[in-house]
Amino acid sequence: MADTRRRVKLYALNEDRQWDDRGTGHVSSSYVERLKGMSLLVRAESDGSLLLESKIQPDTAYQKQQETLIVWSEADNVDLALSFQEKAGCDEIWEKICQVQGKDPSCDITQDIVEESEEEKFEDMPDAAPPIELPPCELSKLDEISEVFNSVLPSPIRREKLANAIEYEGYIKKIVELFHMCEDLENFEGLHQLYEIYKSIFLLNKNALFEVMFSDEFIFDTVGILEYDPSKPEKASHRDYLRNSASFKEVIPISNEELRQKIHQTYRVQYIQDVVLPTPSVFEENMLSTLSSFIFFNKIEIVSMIQDDEKFLTELFAQLTDEATDDNRRRELVNFLKEFCTFSQTLQPQAKESFFKTLSNLGILPALEVILSMDDPEVRQACTDIIMYIVEYSPSMVREFIMQEANQQDDDILLVNLIIEQMICDPDPELGNALQLSGVLRILIDPENMMATANAWASVPFPQKTEKTEFLSFFYKNCMHVLTAPLLANTTEDKPSKDDYVTAQLLSLILELLAFCVEHHTYHIRNYIFNKDLLRRILVLMKSSHGHLALSALRFVRKIISLKEEFYNRYIIKGNLLKPIVDAFLTNGQRYNLLNSATLELFEFIRVEDIKSLVAYVVETFYEQLKDVDYVNTFKGLKLRYEQHMDRQNVKSSLDSVPSILRNHRYRRDARSLDEEEEIWFEQDEEEMEDGEAVVPVTDMLKNKMDEELDHISKIIDGKRARESENKPPSPLKNPTRSPSPPPPSRKFNSSPPAASTSPPASPEVKTNNGGITGLVDYPDEDSDEDEDDDRNSSIPAKRPRLAT
């Protein structure tokens, strides 16, 4: 029992003035040695970790709201709130706080809220300003009452004193009685004054006063007083709307009376905030924060009470999926479920996870499959909103359901295919519902929100695969043909079969999804495009009379080219798939529009990124048609790029035709780089070609340079060989067999790098019986004409020269 009484939720107010849930736990008050005082401690109910450790400061203003809330501000303007599950626990902690501060527990605020300017102004004054005496609530005193109320608004201390006085004297009830009197007498001047007085009460930002004003006894009187806005020419009819038009329907009987009253109150207070009250100024908006908090906590309570009522939700989903339920009844049920999900958006992540898990266990996704197939557009729209709420919060939950039902049902009735069909068949000419459903699809097929770990779908084969691999393979096998069906059906000829506005809007939407797939799905979409020749079909839409559809097709091609994948480039070149774009560009002529700019940007991208295969394709195929487009340098730049590539290929071919001796790395200064002079030449070559100037081919220059170097090398070898012959005595041994001789002059230079060893790569040798040395390899007879040089060669050291003169 103690645990339940002390169970709380901890909230903190963020920068957007919204309450963030910091966790659920149990609160206690005890002396903390480190803080040197009594403190509020909140420990998480899940793991016992410390969620809050706040010393009860003697000068901190604590407020008690709605009997189960305690709100206060920490240092650095951090607003905190404790929401208790039971009123008894709230009263107990409130007494502890009041005991530390020496306050009466019957009050709703322990300190006067003083701003810095007020502190300076009243630093020599007592703890609180003197109480405010309210004028008698009489018709003749309305001017005086209005003046008192308006005069206190700039001062936080006086606002608090006025609020306490109104609450203590039951002043709201007296104002309401005066309102009835003025309305009966049709005293519009008095009614306008009451409006200003009541507006000032709202700006006091006092939760205790809101509870009185929004009670069942006074809620309609509050709305009635606010109908007489003096700035409006006529009286509004808000009470008539709330009583007659905004009738409350219990789609499922609510047995909890507290829940019913809370729903009524929340709707009416929300209506007052959104409709009845005038748009607040910046100053007034800050003073109405308690009103927003009042609505916020009410919605949380409503969602929690409904979620805890298992009988209510079970009956709701049973009727939703029952075929015997008539359409009107089902419409009411769906609208209620939509409102329920809308309220859940105020929940914090932990509570929201519990909320959607409860709906999933009750079978919300199978129910939505039934609802989505209905003909009623209102029901379909509500169903779309619900799906969006679920998918935005937990796309993995929806994907898991889709994969599980794929093993049990046909493709036609899969939830994802139903979503695609509803998108395609949207009756709205502007495709509002289709646009929302395309957003749902985009979230479902987005790999960024797919889990990278192995899935746990027991009914799905290969559970060791990731969610991305599983779901995308499933989607392209079972769903992609449904998505592309309208596109393929409309592009069977050389121009679109249907070219009306609605079809163009729908195909643009499909192309946006396909472009998303190209960007995020890599090989799945690539295989699909190749197998269906999809790009060729999409480019048929370049002939559409609707400019936005032609631009969508062009944007799709741009997305593919931006990947710079050779698979796509070869596919484009082989099919001559840039021809429809060039044709559309030339047909567009000199008109400066989006199509012109987007096409030029496409070719400029190819030039800047230097996509060689596409540069060659564009220049060789389309340059004659595009060379007259001279108001941009794009096509001239493409031509220059193409010429650069061709020159480099010619240089490479020339180098390949030079004997291998010219490419030996032994006599290169650096095996990994060009000569310094050659490097400078190539840099000059690049600069000259970029400037569009004529250049001299490199072949002759390199050939002359290499010939000079080879002559120099040959002279060095000749001199070295002559010196070695003079300094070395003849070899004492004569090889009885033919020994390896230096290579003849016509033999080419080995192009591989020399071995690290200093010994020649000769064949292994063994001693013969007569003491001679013979090679294991017997050389052919044609080497016999070289035997005359054996004496001279035997005197040369073991290092055999690689060059012959």
From TrEMBL:
UniProt-annotated stretches for the region Disordered: 715-805
Signal peptide (residue range): none
Protein family: Belongs to the SMEK family.
This protein's record includes keyword Nucleus: yes
Domain of life: Eukaryota
GO cellular component: nucleoplasm; protein phosphatase 4 complex
Biological processes, Gene Ontology terms: DNA damage response; regulation of double-strand break repair
Serine/threonine-protein phosphatase 4 regulatory subunit 3-like central domain sequence ranges: 144-644
Segments of skewed composition (Basic and acidic residues): 715-727
Pro residues biased stretches: 729-746
InterPro entries linked: ARM-like, ARM-type_fold, EVH1_PP4R3, P4R3-like_central_dom, PH-like_dom_sf, PP4R3-like
Compositional bias per record (Acidic residues), positions renumbered to this chain: 779-791
Compartments, record wording: Nucleus
Designated name of the protein: Serine/threonine-protein phosphatase 4 regulatory subunit 3A-like isoform X1
Molecular function GO labels: protein phosphatase activator activity
Species, as recorded: Branchiostoma floridae (Florida lancelet)
